[in-house]
């Protein structure tokens, strides 16, 4: 990964959080000069420094592995071991055992690598080998299925803009963006910062594609580590009795 991509990422994230370089330096425990060098593209930080940047910039553990893999090619495979490119038969069977909608998803590009029956029933057209971002901005059923469609769509568009350049090939980003541009609101959402008050989307309302009945579901995102894998498990879980 080019130093410039890290520089753009750190500057953009810091600006989104309305932090100065001095504040970021204080939060990381490193000098303002070191922050300036990272943002100028003249320094790739050590693992210790990049960990401090992750903490100060509020980068979820879900994305840290992708960024580390881009910053230090081959490091994760050497430390953790090689990862599979796709879920195997056992992983897909585990997903099918879940009684609620669940999928294997890569972030930030939002490729769907596997789904269970409950997911397919809830989101017709969003099956394995499709893309969540493309679905949100090109499938006419998406706003009907997702009550908070604009909030969800903006979150994933912003995620691609901020995290894409640091973890994905430019060609992959361009392909997704070109597809999503078909929607008149995509470019606005892609360019706009995601509101800090909505930084953590923990619940969602989903309308049944047949009856229209709305279900309140809690979003649970897990990162499989045994074995290490490049995808997350995205689960939409009904609230427990007495818990919102």
From TrEMBL:
<protein>
    <submittedName>
        <fullName>Helix-turn-helix domain-containing protein</fullName>
    </submittedName>
</protein>
<dbReference type="InterPro" id="IPR001387">
    <property type="entry name" value="Cro/C1-type_HTH"/>
</dbReference>
<dbReference type="Pfam" id="PF17765">
    <property type="entry name" value="MLTR_LBD"/>
</dbReference>
<feature type="domain" description="HTH cro/C1-type">
    <location>
        <begin position="10"/>
        <end position="64"/>
    </location>
</feature>
<dbReference type="Pfam" id="PF13560">
    <property type="entry name" value="HTH_31"/>
</dbReference>
<dbReference type="InterPro" id="IPR041413">
    <property type="entry name" value="MLTR_LBD"/>
</dbReference>
<dbReference type="InterPro" id="IPR010982">
    <property type="entry name" value="Lambda_DNA-bd_dom_sf"/>
</dbReference>
């Amino acid at each position: 990964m080019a130093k410039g991509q890290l520089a753009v990422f750190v500057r953009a994230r810091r600006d989104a959080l309305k932090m100065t370089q001095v504040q970021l330096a204080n939060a990381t425990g490193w000098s303002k000069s070191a922050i300036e060098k990272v943002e100028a593209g003249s320094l790739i930080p050590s693992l210790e420094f990049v960990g401090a940047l992750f903490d100060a910039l509020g980068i979820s553990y879900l994305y840290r592995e992708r960024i580390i893999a881009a910053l230090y090619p081959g490091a994760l495979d050497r430390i953790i071991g090689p990862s599979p490119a796709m879920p195997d038969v056992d992983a897909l069977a585990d997903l099918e055992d879940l009684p609620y909608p669940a999928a294997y998803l890569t972030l930030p590009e939002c490729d769907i690598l596997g789904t269970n029956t409950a997911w397919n029933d809830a989101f017709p057209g969003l099956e394995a080998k499709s893309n969540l971002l493309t679905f949100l901005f090109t499938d006419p059923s998406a706003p009907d299925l997702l009550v908070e469609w604009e909030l969800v769509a903006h979150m994933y568009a912003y995620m691609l803009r901020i995290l894409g350049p640091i973890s994905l090939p430019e060609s992959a980003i361009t392909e997704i963006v070109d597809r999503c541009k078909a929607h008149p609101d995509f470019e606005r959402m892609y360019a706009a910062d995601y509101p800090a008050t909505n930084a953590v989307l923990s619940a969602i309302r989903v309308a049944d594609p047949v009856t229209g009945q709305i279900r309140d579901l809690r979003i649970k995102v897990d990162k499989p580590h045994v074995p290490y894998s490049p995808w997350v498990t995205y689960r939409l879980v009904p609230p427990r009795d007495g818990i919102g």
